[in-house]
Structure formats: C-alpha cells, structure tokens
Amino acid sequence: MSFRITYSVLDADLSALHARFDEALAAARAGLGAELPSWIAGEAYRGGVLLESRNPARPDELLASFHRTPATELDRVVRVAREAQRGWGATDWRERARILRRAADLISERRWELAARMTLEVGKSRLESLGDVEEAADLFRYYAGQLEDAEGFSRPMARLSPNEDTRSVLRPYGVFAVISPFNFPLALAAGMSAGALLGGNTVILKPSEEAPWCAEGLYHALVDAGLPPGVFQVVHGDGESLGAALVRHPGVDGVSFTGSKAVGMDLHRELSTGRVRPCFLELGGKNPAIVCRDADLEAAIEGCFRSAFGLSGQKCSALSRVYVQEAVLNDFLDGLVAKARAAVVGDPSLASVFTGPVINESSVRRFERAVDEARRDGVVRAGGERLRLDGPLARGHFVAPTVVELSHSHRLMREELFLPFVGVTSFRTLEEALRLANDCEYGLTAGIFSRDADTVERFMAQAEAGVLYANRRTGATTGAWPGVQSFCGWKGSGASGKGGCGPYYVSQFMREQAQTRMG
Ligand code: NAD
After folding, report:
1. Residue 164 known to be catalytic
2. The pTM is what?
C-alpha cells in the first residue's frame, strides 16, 4: 500500500488492505471465547467476576471474557504503581522514549490483528479501526519526540549571582489513573497513557467496559517493548464502581480522563476535594458546521456526511448541527439526505459497509427517544428507524443515519447524543451563523464551507472550539491526527487547555521544580 491510513483516506486502491484484513479477521475469530485477565504487578489477575466483551453487530458473539479487578484489590494495585514509579521516574528520559518508540513499532507490526479485534469489539469499519491503531502508534512516536526535543524537560535558567546554577526541571507527579472511553479504544487509552509514562509516571488504566479486548493489545505492546512490571497496569470493571473507586484512591496522584461531560465533571469535583490533584479532562461535543451559499456544495455535503455518520456518529468530534445559508438549504438537504439513505449500514467487518452498529442497546434506546422528539418538533428527512438486519445480525444495534430539520433552540441541537443523528437549520447572515454555532455549552470542533477567504478568517477568529476546519471534504469536523491537529476541548468539552495530538501534551503530566545549586 502506498498511502498512509488516517481518518481522512478517501480515494485509494484498498484491495491489498482488504485481503490482509480478511486474514486478520479469520485469525481473530478462530480465537474467540478466551478468558483474559486484568494485569496487576506484571502478572495476570484471574480472581474476578467476568466481564463479557460482545460484538455490537452480533451480540450473540462472545469475543472474550475478562477478569474484573475487585475494588478491594485497588490498594495493592496502587501500592505496586507507587513502588514501580520510583524506578521508572528515575529512568533516563532517553530510555523512556526508546521503550515507547519500540511499543509504537509493535503496534504498527500488529496493526491487522489489533484492528480486526477492534472492529469486532466496538463495531468500527475497517478503515476506522486501522486509523485508530495507526493513531495509537503515531501518538507514541509524536509524544516520545516531545520528550526528546525538550531533552527530558530540563533547562538552564538565569542566575542572580555568579556562583549559582539554576535549572527548571519537569518531574513526574507519581501515579496516574487513566480512564478511557469506548470509541477510540486504542488511540485514546494509548495516548493518555503515553503522556503519563513519558513524563515518568506509572499508569493504572481503567479502559471502557465496552472495549477490554483492545486494552489487552495495548498492554502487550507496552510490556513486549520492555516496560518494567507495575509501570503500566490494566484493571477491568465498570466505571461507576471500579473507575470511581480508583479516582478516589488517595494513592492516585492525578487522573487523565476522556469520556462524557457528566462523568468528567464528577471526577473534577472529586479531584478538587482534599488535596488538589491534576485532572485532565477531554469531554464530549456538539459540533457545528456552517455551510455558506458560496460553498462548494458537493464538498460540503460529502464532508458533513462523513463527519455526521462515520463511526455511526460516535465520535466526540462528530458533526451534529449544520447551519446552512437559506439560498442553498434545499440543495444541501437533498444532497445530504440522498447520501444518508444510500449509506450501507451493516456488519462493519465487511469491506462493503460504510458504518456499523452503535455500541449497545442503551444507545439504540437513546436514538429512538431522540427520533420521537424529532418527529414531534421537527421534520425527519432521512433515517429515523432502528434497522433489523438479517441472519446473525438480527440482534445487532443498528440504526439508520438520520437527518432532521430542527430549530436551533431544540434540546436535540444542544445535548450530545453520540449517535448518527444530525440536525439541520438555516441562517441568513454569517454573523447569525457564528452566533448559533457558538451558542452551545460544548466547544470541541467546528467546520465551515465557503469560497470566501474573509468568511473563513472570520470563522477562524470567532468560532469557540478547539479544532477548526475550513472546506474539509474528508470530514467537516472530524479526523484530527497526531502532530497535525491538536485536539483540545474548549468550554464544556475539556479542561486541559492543551490538546492530545498537540505539541504541549507530555509536559502536562509533569510538575515543575526549580533546582538552584550554589558553587
Ligand atoms: P463514558 O463517560 O460513559 O465512559 C468513559 C470512561 O469512564 C469509561 O471507562 C467508563 O467506565 C468510565 N466511567 C464511567 N463512570 C465513571 C465514574 N463515575 N467514575 C470513574 N469512571 C467512570 O463515555 P463513553 O460512552 O465511553 O464515551 C463517549 C464519550 O466520550 C462521549 O461523550 C464523547 O464525546 C467522549 N469522548 C471525548 C473525546 C475527546 O477527546 N474530547 C474523545 C472520545 C470520546
């Protein structure tokens, strides 16, 4: 293959890719049903109640069962992490970077196996899964480069007298809890963990209960790359029980969380009681696109379609609100509706399928409630139904890509749904469009389609979101990549101020120390 798999691959000859993916799927399916552990102190922990990982396209297909870590084991997990941190924090930064780079190479080497499992576990299409795996490897490399470029984050400072020598040194916090969501099960677990590990912290990863199998792959890549025992541990279990207990544990020095705003806000409150601890939050979105009358309408329709319905709308950067200038509203809607109706929804392990299921039954119910409201208060132009597919997919969590005309003030235009559901409404002036796009508690990504350079610049200056795109056919609001688009949630979408994928990421996981030595 002569191209790189990112989330923006559009036109390429994918035949070799599909053949290789087919082989990896067959191999993954041949090993289904295993009982897999949590990983504590470098050893398999098998004493817990089992957590089942099932295929959302075929819920009857049990992929693997995982031993949960009981909350009563957390004291030991944290103690191990603290002990391991002494050695890891003192390890030369070059060695930390070398191990992470080696892990990146292992992830790349294992990309087919990891992507096939991901498609089975969270229902991503082939390209989305391969992109997620490549992103994980690229994040390791990009973040290792930050440590190398900054020479371990130690730099000389000014002197107040001739016989003093002062350095500013970034030092680890200690033990980080990393809590990751289901939708980028490798890239986000890997990216947050890499930031903490490169900074000299040890990590206790609590992956999404919907994606334990992907976390298993991450664990092996890191350990096979030479990470010492106890530096990276994986505990499996539910968020409300195990995740909450982990975050509350007094031996945890900081938390990196990516997930929903509701959970993130709870964690933030928790981390600010007693002693203050760092809490990096990357949260949800309700991302808008503005389509102006001078836009390349075909590009706008393609870009909006891909961002609204790729991964069945389950991206934090997914497009969920479109503001279209009155003169082109009907043409835009006709185009988007036609594409939504033609999109192939089905088993994401098949090459011919554009998008797979939503993650679980509760997402289907959320979809049905949203559609009921949309029928009552707006016009459903495409989709709106649960899809009952045949044969082994009959019990899958499939819903149709849905396009709805709704007024800006409607609840469904404000709250994150995390579904293939996009609301469209019209605007008259650019000023109005910017006001509507910004009138939202979230501020993650936003896009505009216009041929006018001044319009684009006004959007760049005034849009209240951390990631902005203009005229992006491959995705109006989605598709950020490490070292290209920093991914930083503004407003209710995050509380880090420095994004994943961006140049300032690793240093957040370290605290500054001034060291003055008198001669
Ligand atoms: P979620 O908030 O339900 O769960 C995320 C993680 O938190 C899971 O591991 C879960 O087990 C854990 N958790 C749940 N309750 C907890 C608690 N009380 N204490 C501690 N941990 C708890 O999110 P999800 O459904 O897995 O993922 C979707 C959400 O993530 C969406 O809101 C999406 O926008 C957001 N997201 C944001 C980004 C970003 O970079 N900003 C990226 C991906 C996903």
Report:
1. no
2. 0.96
